[in-house]
User: Fold these one by one.
Assistant:
Number 1:
Amino acid sequence: MEKDSPDPLIFAATLLAAARDGGARKTDRTRARLLAALARELGSGLAWRDLKVAEVTRTAGLAHGTFYRYFPDMPAAVETLIEEFSGFVESHLAATRAGAETETRQRVEAATLVFARLFRRNAGLMRCLIGLAAEETAFARAYRRLNREWYGRVAGAIARDRQDGHPADDHLPAAYALGGMIDEFLAQIYLRREPALAHLANDEEKVAGILTDLWCFGAYGGRSE
C-alpha cells in the first residue's frame, strides 16, 4: 500500500477517499463527506442517540443546512450508514470466498481473519452496531434485517459444505450461535479490552485460528475438509 493510501479496511477512510474522488459527482462527494464524518463521530465512541447535526457537519467541513439536503434527520442518516457499512463488511467477506478452491477450514479462516481485522479497525462503529439489536427503531430493525440475511447465507454455506441432506434452515440456529460467538469474542478483545485476552489484541491471525477451530467443531462436528 502506498504511504498516502487509505487503509481499505477502515470504513471512514474509504468514505473519505470517495469524497475526494474528482471524477465523482459533487453530490456524491458531499454525501460521502457527511457519511465519513458520521462514521468518525461514531468511531470516537459517541452513542448514536448523542449525535448532533452541527457536530457532524463541522467534522465534514460543511454548512449545517447541507445535512438536510441529503437526510431528513439523524436516524435516517445513521440507518443509511448502517446499510452501507454492512455492505462494506459483506463485500470484504465475499472477496475471501470468490473463486476460492480451498478446503472448508481455509475458507472459514480467511473470512474470519478479514472480519477480525474489520472489527478491530472499525471498533467504534462495531460497538454502535452491536448495541442496536435490542432497540425498537427503524434503525435497529434495518440492522436486524441485514443480520438475518447474513445468517441465512451462512446457514446455506454450512448446508452445502456438510452435504447431509438437511436444508439451510435446519442450520440457521447454528449460524446464529456461531456468529454470536465470534461477535462476543471480538467484542471482549477490541471493545471491552478484557485483560485476560490482552495478549491477543495484536495477533489477528491467532484470533482467527481460535475462532476457526470453534467454528469447525460447531458447524461440522470437527470436520474441516
Number 2:
Amino acid sequence: MKVAFLGKGGSGKSTMATAFVRELRKRGIGVLAIDADYNMDLSYNLGAEPSVFLGNDPEKLKEHVGSVRADTYLNALKLAKEKGFVFTITPADGYTESISVELENGLRLITAGPHTDRVRSQEACSHSLAAPLKVYLPLLRLNPNEAVVIDERAGTDPVATGILSGVDLAVIVREPTVNSIRVAEQIKSELEFAKIPHLIVENKHKGIEVDTARAAEAIFAARSSHVVSV
C-alpha cells in the first residue's frame, strides 16, 4: 500500500501522515516514509534530523536506470520498465539505500529536502526536488507487510505534475474553512482526472482537532473514495 497525504497548507496533512506512519508501525508493518515537502515537517515529526536529500541530485535516478540526465522522467520510467527495473525496501536496493536513512528497524525515511542552489538560481524549479518519485514510486515493489507513506506539498501540484501516479490511495486532509474546502475540491478534481483512489479526512470539525490515531485507523481500513469523519 502506497498512501499520499495532501491538502491546503496548515490543514494538518503532515500531522496525519505522521499518525499514519505510527499506526502502521504499531501493526508491525514496515514503512518507507517519504517527505516530499521542502518544509520537512514529516521528517522532524518522526524525530529525524535530515542530512540525506533526494533533491540534492534528482537526475541521479535517471542515470541509475540507464537513461541520461537530460532525458525526461517519463522517458526514464519507460526505459526502466523495459529493462525490468524495480526498487525495494527490504532488502533495500542500492538506489533506495543511497537516498534514504533507516530511523529504526522497519522504518526508512526519504526526504526531498530544502531548496537547493539550482532552485534558488532558477536553474530548476522546486518541483525538481521530488521529481524522481515519478519513476521511483511506480517501480517500487513492496513485500506483503510493507507500506509507503508520503507527505506531499500543499495544493494540487503533486497530482498535476504526475508524482502521485504510483500511489494506491490519496488522503485529502480538509478543514471546515472556505479556502481549505476549495483547495480540497481542486485536489479531488485532479485526483479524479488522474484516476487515483482517494478519500477525505475532516480535521478541526466544530473547532476540534481530529483524533489522529482514530483517523489513522479509519484510513487503514478504507479501500474506497469517501469522507472519513472522526
Number 3:
Amino acid sequence: MSQTELTLIPCTSDANSGSVVPVTPKITLYTAAPSQNAVRPELALLEKGISFDKIQVDLFGGEHKQPAYGEITPRRQVPTLVYGEGDEAITLYESVAIIQFIDDMCPEPPLMPPVSEPAKRAKALMRLAEFQQKLDPKNIFGSVVFRKQTREQLGERVDALLEELPRWDAYVGNGPFLCGEQFTLADIAVFPLLMHFEAIGYDYSKHTPSLFAYMNQCKMRPSVVQSGWIENFLAFAREREPGQVLAG
C-alpha cells in the first residue's frame, strides 16, 4: 500500500491567537483511486479541511485479500477509515456510514442541514436513503465494465435506471445541489455514482437538464477537483472501453 499524507487546514482555529487547534485524532483513509465508493469519505474530509493519511489499496493486485489488510478491516474493502490510533482507534468501512461519522465528529462546516431546519434536514436524509435503497441498486456500471454485458442482456435493469434518473432531475430542480443551496452528504453520496452513468453513455444534457447542470457544479467543486478522482475514474473507464449502453 502506498501512502500520501495530505496537509490541510483543520476544522477550526484559535480565533484569538490564530494558532491551529487540533480537533480530531489521526485519521487514515484506505482507498482506491478510481472507486466511486472510496472517494466519498475523501470528499467529506476535504470539505471539512481535516488532515488525513491517504493509503491506496491495489484492488486489482489483490492487496485487499492479504492478511495484513484483513487485520485492518474485516470486510477487506475500500473505503475503510481508521479514526484514532491504538486501542482507541475506531474503524468504519461503509462509505455512507463514514461520511455521516465524519460530519458528526467534525461538525464545522456542516454537511447536513441542522435540526433547526427540519424540512431541509428531512430532504437530505431522504435523498441519502433513496440513494442507498433506490439509485445505487440500479448501478449497472460493473456489469458493463467487468462482465461486458450489452444493453440487450441488461434489459429491464437499463429500463429501471432510465426511469429512475428523471426523478433525481426533479429533485435537483433549480438546485444547484440536491437539497438546494447547501452541498450535503447526499451530494457526496450521489454525484460519484452519476459519473458512472455518464461513462457508459448517459446524456444528461439531453435527458435530464437539471442533473446536467448539477453534474457541472459538482465537477467544479473544490473538494472534487482537489481529490483528483474524476481524472482517475475517467482514465480507468477509458482503459476498459465500456459499452455505451445508456447512449441514445
